[in-house]
Amino acid sequence: MSTLDTRPPALLGTSGQIFLAITLGVAVLVPALNLLLPPDSPFYIPTYVVSLLGKYLTYALLALSVDLIWGYVGILSLGHGAFFALGGYAMGMYLMRQIGTRGVYGDPVLPDFMVFLNWKELPWFWWGFDMFPYAALMVLFAPGVLALVFGWFAFRSRVTGVYLSIITQAMTFALLLAFFRNDMGFGGNNGLTDFKDILGFNIQSDGTRATLFALSALALAGGYVLCRFLVRSHFGKVLVAIRDAETRVRFTGYRAENYKLVAFVVSAMLAGIAGALYVPQVGIINPSEFSPANSIEIIVWVAVGGRGTLVGAALGAVLVNYAKTYFTSGLLAPYWLFMLGGLFVAVTLFLPKGIVGTFYEWREKRRPPPDEAAPPLAEPRPAE
Fold it and tell me: CB under 8 Å to 5, separation ≥6 — which residues?
């Protein structure tokens, strides 16, 4: 005999708690090992490694945003690199405005590339980017509005499946071509670079790099909690139902397009935050970030880690990008794309649920049935 467990499901679960503990621990440990230890210590982490790890964390947040819509709504977006790049450009524009007279041409207002192209005044869409609060707002606003407009038309037109994927890829390719043009006012093919300060702090200093790393880790933790809250709520249950049987969801009276639109916009904003944290740590943002190949690579990260697991998406991003860093710095560098493609094929054939998804499945199989797991109830004793 067993009793029915009526307790609400935990928000994080065991895997989520472990993930958050590791993420928050890394946010403290890595900067401490960089700032507090001497360079000759065996535990010292160089600043360039801190920046590299920070870049991995921004990719993990980007993968998390894609898993929210692909793993739980069934929207395979091949254009999320566009939202990532828009957030990066918003931060890059702020960083360019902070250069001031320290640029090559010494103009206190115009960035160097505008002076080189004989621009006479700052374009209207650059106004306000000398203020960090405005730039931070645009990090969310720019990708959010693009996702809202795109999703509003796409979801209400009932575009799904491979057709939606192709349209998202066309969107990011169109932005790639647009941002390559010098007359767009975003630096053309060279993009935005040569950053000096962020909030008055030298962007190249060890302390700033460590702080950016910690902020990336905190953003990843916060993004995970937000996504986990969404997918565990009633809203998330509707998203999963839409993924599995959208027509039935519509028949029950739900406006499926509204649910998909909200999830899509939230996902785009998370991608924009990832891009904003990426730019100051890498030191450049250019139109190549809009490349459709980058968006396809994000899908590989999520597939390797485990679609629909959140933790797996973040893990896949870190593992694949670490492998990319390792294999593109040696004799195997020319073959990296072949290795990446082979990895995706291998995961599809042998680990269709990804690393974390396969682990979850294995754990469930080893878990005893509910009747066996429940402790036996004490037999009632007769009244004396």
Answer: none
